[in-house]
């Protein structure tokens, strides 16, 4: 029987432009499947227990998956309050969705607790790569190194990626052009104090990492006393003696 005990409950929100794959990421996390999805109307909820860090703390992530459509913006931003973690998602094949990350981040900073841990999620990498490519030095706890030359963001030279694109001749027909490089995404994350991960909800690449790395950062903050239990920050710990573990329904 599935072990439903937990050490922490954390509230998460998923946000970002419509059709970037937020609901698909959540379904991959909770049900480990990839299905046709309808645009979210307002918000949807999903939850799963994940094991976090070397100590294997059992963390129940309770996720509010918000609609990216502009007309829901005032409703969805009200769900940001009290979140301990946030997944800010864009589609690597749609530059516009990356351009809007700044505005989503502004909303998050405005409505969420100041201690919210945010991970920038570069989704749909399966559309432009046949396997997940290693993203050097940006795993949790390893700061992303600044490039030795300033990043030129002009469209003509927007490719300082550490991983060069696959040669066109070997490119399968259905691969799309990647419009936002690893370097751009990771650098944006670094500059704004966010974690960074590349994912494919379709293939399942990086999805658990996105939720787990965020949880690790939240638990670090709890350890350092930067987050209060049960106070804003969306963290709930098991109560009572250390041997006792919370049960979820
Ligand atoms: N190839 C590919 N398609 C994806 C991926 N993630 C999502 N999609 C597709 O992108 C479309 C939108 O996905 P959703 O998960 O509904 O997007 P959303 O961000 O929840 O959209 P809203 O609810 O409108 O905000 C669907 O057709 C998905 O099947 C992915 O990783 N790879
Ligand atoms: Mg959705």
Automatic annotation (TrEMBL):
Protein name, UniProt field: Rab family protein
GO molecular function, one term: GTP binding
Ranges in coiled-coil conformation: none
Record field: transmembrane: none
Low complexity bias spans: 149-160
Gene source species: Kwoniella dejecticola CBS 10117
Similarity comment text for this entry: Belongs to the small GTPase superfamily. Rab family.
Region (Disordered): 139-174
InterPro entries for the chain: P-loop_NTPase (IPR027417), Rab_GTPases_membrane_traffic (IPR050209), Small_GTP-bd (IPR005225), Small_GTPase (IPR001806)
Pfam families, alphabetized: Ras
